[in-house]
Design goal:
Order of helices and strands: HEHEHHHEHEHEHEEEEHEEEEHEEEHHH
Strand content: 15-25%
Helix content: 25-40%
Number of helices: 13
Structural class: alpha/beta
Length: 430
């Protein structure tokens, strides 16, 4: 199948990532029954990372995905790594205490290193660029940003973050749209499709058996775990459900706690190299609840993401919605050429922290990374693999987090989601 003609069946629009990484390798669909030590359902960052680390340890592992690797959020996201967890250190410390909050912070720091180490070990490039800015869209948020810097620097020992006042932030952004905020030089941003392609190739090289276009219809335990597909059943001792925003109600526990929402990204034509826009090529995620996130690619395109569709899943014109947001921040780009506009599902939880559980003996699930999954989903896959192998029980840090169900049940969950997003988008504007 030529990737130049391929369109994702589950996500709108063709992404710039697809057109900038060459033709994606293909993996065959499952054809017939098979057995293994561990089966992984879901070929995004989390699932492929779990398969890689299991295979490296000599475990016989089979991974299946309902579509192509990269069709979901792992191949179409904003590419920003970030630091820590999705919830801030101050917020987590108030809820969990310093010891657990610090352990979660250290886990995220390990996740950064792990992401780079995998690429180095298997020799693939993923267009890593350094730096992240978090500007405040309201002046009243500046004090909170200053406090977060102080806490991270003095209590968590993280010296790579600093506070920028409005003038310094405006220079760093090339825009006066925001107030002050933070600069983090201990993280960066990546080309997610390139990383995903490299991760899949690494898992296959390590011995994992990978299958695309193979949807799981059910999972059952009767001594062994049985994963049923249209063209065969996989029998395994252990299983990882790494489905995130594409669980398709495979398990009711996922549907009630991991909620998919759509986010949209546009890519401009390459900007002039003298443009004031993001002169240091840092990534940006702002302080809005419905966050706007943007960065420049290595070839100087502005990649800009956000969400402004609440009454229906996908806006009729993704490019127009994204262009409107770009123009608010960079008025001089109102007529810039847009070469790509696309969307995809990310998954959120009520507390904005991952939902990681052992649903049955030997059957684990992980998802709901809430826009913070580039490094954390990769590392969560590794931690689950290490738990399977008896090497580490670090995954307990995420397993023990409280993740309540979304209100509304199956009938009202989506209408309530749209109501909540509309409400928070309104608060972002006032």
């Amino acid at each position: 199948m030529s990737d130049q003609l391929y369109q994702s069946p589950i996500s709108p629009g063709r992404s710039w990532y697809e057109d900038s990484c060459g033709e994606r390798p293909t993996y065959p669909a499952l054809d017939g029954d098979t057995s293994c030590d561990a089966v992984v359902v879901g070929g995004g960052f989390c699932g492929l990372s779990a398969a890689l680390h299991l295979a490296e340890a000599g475990t016989k592992v089979v991974l299946i995905d309902a579509h192509r690797f990269g069709d979901g959020a792992s191949g179409r996201n904003g590419g920003q790594m970030g630091s820590g967890q999705r919830a801030g250190a101050i917020e987590l410390e108030k809820e969990l205490g310093f010891e657990r909050s610090k352990a979660l912070w250290d886990m995220a720091e390990d996740a950064k290193t792990s992401l780079h180490n995998i690429a180095s070990r298997y020799g693939f490039d993923f267009d890593y660029q350094l730096g992240q800015l978090t500007p405040m869209h309201k002046k009243s948020f500046e004090a909170e940003a200053r406090e977060e810097v102080e806490v991270l620097s003095h209590r968590y020992g993280y010296k790579k973050i600093e506070y920028l006042d409005k003038d310094k932030m405006s220079s760093a952004l090339g825009s006066e749209h925001y107030f002050g905020g933070t600069r983090d030089t201990g993280t960066g941003h990546i080309h997610p499709m390139k990383y995903l392609i490299g991760l899949a190739a690494a898992a296959a090289k390590a011995g994992a058996v990978l299958h695309e276009n193979t949807a799981a219809f059910s999972t059952e335990r009767n001594g062994k775990i049985f994963v049923k597909t249209a063209r065969g059943t996989i029998t395994a001792d252990r299983c990882v459900l790494a489905l995130n925003g594409h669980h398709n109600d495979l398990r009711p526990e996922l549907a009630s706690r991991v909620l998919p929402i759509q986010s949209f990204i546009g890519a401009t034509a390459p900007l002039d190299h003298n443009t004031p826009v993001l002169p240091n090529h840092e990534a940006v995620d702002d302080s809005r609840f419905v966050v706007r996130y943007f960065r420049k690619s290595k070839d100087n395109r502005l990649l800009f993401g956000g969400r402004e569709a609440y009454g229906k899943s996908t806006p009729g014109d993704i490019e127009r919605a994204i262009r409107k947001q770009i123009t608010e921040i960079y008025p001089d780009l109102s007529d810039v050429e847009m070469t790509h506009a696309w969307g995809g599902n990310v998954a959120i939880t009520m507390p904005r922290m991952p939902y990681v559980r052992e649903l049955e003996t030997g059957l684990w699930t992980a998802g709901g990374f809430s826009g913070h999954g580039v490094m954390l989903s990769n590392y969560t896959g590794r931690m689950i693999a290490e738990q399977f192998l008896g090497k580490s029980d670090q995954i307990k840090l995420l397993k023990d987090l409280k993740t309540p169900q979304f209100p509304g049940g199956s009938l009202f969950r989506n209408p309530l989601k749209l109501l909540a997003l509309t409400w928070y988008a309104m608060l972002d504007r006032i």
